[in-house]
């Protein structure tokens, strides 16, 4: 088993990286909003898996409150990434649909290689990839244990996106 102090230091570095990554994206990239698995991104990913869902279905599938789901959906409508249509069977139900721009946002969310990653040698990249793979496999196992449907969907979505990118 790993030394507890070393494990705590590594966990601290992971937390620092996570926060710094968000700041880096906001300040350095300043480009188009990128797709995340939080809030609006979570909804886009769910709709990429199955379009034409009600807001209630989205909330249930994503484990979000109906209020949060509604708020995120309306933000996506304003960005022209989704549309709302009334259900034919029950006019009180709003169905959420991806627009062409929404589909393009999902497709263009491929991971860019940040300049700081290019500073690593081939050996360092191999080590980093190995370690991150080991960590993400364990994370997916925990996610699948907590919510098998969501974990599998996100894993498949990310895996297919990155595999597609490297087959070019």
Account of the protein in words:
Helix 3 (55-62) packs across helix 4 (66-78) and helix 6 (122-146) packs antiparallel against helix 7 (148-166). The mean pLDDT is 79. The chain has helices at 4-29, 39-49, 55-62, 66-78, 100-107, 122-146, 148-166; strands at residues 53-54, 82-86, 94-98. The chain is built from 7 helices and 3 strands. A hairpin with a 7-residue loop joins strand 2 and strand 3 (94-98).
What structural class is derived from the secondary structure elements? Answer: mainly alpha
> Helicity range of the residues?
55-70%
Q: How many distinct folded domains?
A: 3
The best one-word shape is elongated
What number is the mean pLDDT? 79
Number of strands: 3
In CATH, the architecture of the largest domain is: Orthogonal Bundle
The count of helical stretches stands at: 7
- CATH fold descriptor of the largest domain: Arc Repressor Mutant, subunit A
Can you write the helix and strand succession as a string? HHEHHEEHHH
What is the CATH top level name of the largest domain?
A: Mainly Alpha
* End-to-end gap: 40 Å
The biggest sheet amounts to:
3 strands, antiparallel
Q: Give the strand order, joined by hyphens, for the main sheet.
A: 1-3-2
Which stretches are poorly predicted, pLDDT < 50 over at least 5 residues?
Answer: none
Under CATH, the homologous superfamily of the largest domain reads: Winged helix-like DNA-binding domain superfamily/Winged helix DNA-binding domain
- Rg for CA atoms: 19 Å
Beta-strand level of the residues, as a percent range?
5-15%
């Amino acid at each position: 088993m790993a030394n507890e102090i070393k494990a705590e230091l590594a966990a601290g570095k992971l937390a620092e990286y996570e926060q710094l990554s968000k700041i880096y994206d906001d300040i350095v990239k300043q480009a188009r909003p990128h797709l995340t698995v939080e809030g609006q991104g979570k909804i886009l990913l769910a709709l990429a898996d199955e379009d034409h869902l009600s807001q209630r279905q989205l909330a249930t599938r994503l484990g979000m409150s109906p209020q949060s789901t509604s708020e995120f959906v309306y933000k996506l409508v304003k960005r022209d990434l989704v549309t709302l249509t009334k259900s034919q069977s029950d006019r009180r139900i709003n169905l959420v649909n991806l627009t062409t721009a929404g589909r393009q946002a999902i497709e263009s969310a491929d991971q860019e290689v940040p300049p700081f990653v290019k500073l690593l040698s081939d050996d360092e990249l191999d080590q980093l990839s190995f370690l991150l793979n080991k960590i993400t496999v364990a994370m997916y196992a925990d996610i699948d244990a907590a919510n098998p449907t969501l974990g599998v969907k996100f894993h498949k979505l990310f895996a297919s996106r990155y595999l597609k990118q490297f087959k070019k």
